[in-house]
Backbone:
């Protein structure tokens, strides 16, 4: 099979990340055909042309719909702001393209449902950009939990914090618009939820309080503009079987740069993981001499499959962009009909249901079921 023809919409933070993955996936894994970087789209032709040269795409356009008509393109990366995901992903699927769509799925549940319906109708593969589940250590943690290494799971806590909106002088931009979603929930909470989906499952009931640390921000054209969504979310969760959990997300947490802190407590031990230290996790095992009990750090190595595809030396570490390369490889596996470790639109919609239940819980000040 010739390498997949790739289209890319959006070339910002995530657009570059997808482009790096498309450029690297064949070299890292050695078992997939080298993708052909056919065309990218941006908001105007000059930016698109410049980015195509930088990122290695053969053609460029200022109109994303041009990618739909290009028979050379088999798969489209959607890396635009949240409010465009639904229209772009659905149009791509209807044009017969596979889709790799950044999170969150959409800004309304109805749009997310339309996306899944479009995927089912098309028979094409549609995968979400939930890169954190691709960390070899996260997979190992899931295996440990599945094998009962820490016993029955008794409690779960997840936190996602960054400080890119901590400065009250940070100008208003699309992430504070209501049309981009609820704020901390769509922007952040979906990531820890993706981790929970592979570690312990998704919550069935939630109780949420959201907060807005800054009521307004400087507008780019002068004056001030009211912040339209919430930068902080605190969520109590109940899982199937009565397991309890807590999720907290904060985009305004000074000092936190990329924290996704996961704590899984079990009847025989505990697992701790922080995305800011993504090449290690902490394991507590209550077996053996209690005098020697304590958390121990496990560094990533070739014993955690996939790590060795990047680098033979243990403990040298992977980075954020590497997770996207793994996600790209999994997407290609799914397209080839092989088993793939991905959040597809089916699971993506479940994450959306959880997030929308959280938002409704905040609005109605009560517990809400997610399913
Ligand atoms: N998976 C992750 O870890 C992760 C991390 C950050 C962002 N994201 C998601 O990625 C998406 C993009 O976020 P970002 O931080 O890259 O944003 P960004 O602002 O850096 O980039 C968005 C790009 O899309 C372009 N764009 C906007 N409208 C367009 C249109 N109609 N046609 C073509 N291009 C258009 C913009 O010009 C810009 O270059 C968001 O949905 C966000 O939630 C995911």
Residues:
């Amino acid at each position: 099979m010739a390498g997949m023809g790739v289209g890319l919409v959006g070339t910002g933070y995530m657009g570059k990340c997808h482009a790096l993955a498309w450029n690297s996936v064949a070299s890292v894994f050695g078992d997939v055909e080298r993708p052909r970087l056919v065309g990218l789209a941006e908001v105007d032709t000059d930016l698109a042309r410049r980015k195509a040269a930088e990122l290695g795409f053969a053609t460029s356009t200022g109109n994303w719909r041009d990618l739909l008509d290009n028979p050379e393109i088999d798969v489209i990366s959607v890396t635009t702001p949240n409010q465009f995901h639904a229209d772009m992903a659905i149009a791509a699927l209807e044009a017969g393209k596979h889709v790799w769509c950044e999170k969150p799925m959409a800004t309304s549940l109805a749009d997310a449902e339309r996306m899944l319906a479009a995927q089912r109708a098309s028979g094409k593969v549609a995968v979400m950009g939930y890169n954190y589940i691709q960390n070899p250590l996260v997979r190992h943690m899931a295996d440990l939990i599945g094998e009962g290494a820490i016993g029955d799971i008794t409690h779960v806590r997840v936190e996602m914090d960054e400080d890119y909106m901590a400065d009250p002088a940070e100008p208003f931009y699309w992430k504070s618009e209501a049309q981009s979603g609820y704020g901390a929930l769509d922007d952040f909470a979906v990531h820890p939820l993706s981790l929970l989906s592979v570690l312990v499952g998704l919550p069935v009931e939630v109780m949420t309080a959201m907060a807005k640390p800054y009521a307004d921000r400087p507008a780019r054209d002068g004056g001030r503009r009211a912040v339209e969504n919430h930068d902080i979310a605190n969520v109590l969760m109940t899982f199937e079987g009565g397991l309890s959990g807590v999720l907290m997300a904060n985009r305004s947490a000074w000092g936190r740069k990329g924290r996704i802190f996961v704590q899984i407590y079990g009847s025989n031990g505990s697992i701790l993981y922080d995305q800011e230290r993504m090449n290690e996790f902490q394991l507590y095992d209550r077996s053996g001499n209690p005098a020697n009990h304590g958390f121990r750090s496990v560094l990533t190595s070739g014993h955690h499959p996939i790590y060795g595809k990047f680098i033979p030396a243990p403990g040298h570490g992977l980075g954020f962009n590497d997770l996207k390369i793994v996600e790209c490889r999994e997407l290609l596996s799914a397209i080839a009909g092989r088993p793939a470790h991905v959040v597809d639109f089916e699971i993506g919609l479940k994450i959306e249901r959880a997030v929308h239940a959280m938002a409704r819980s905040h609005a109605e000040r009560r517990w809400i079921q997610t399913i």
The chain has a mean pLDDT of 97. The chain has two domains: 5-131, 133-318+339-369.
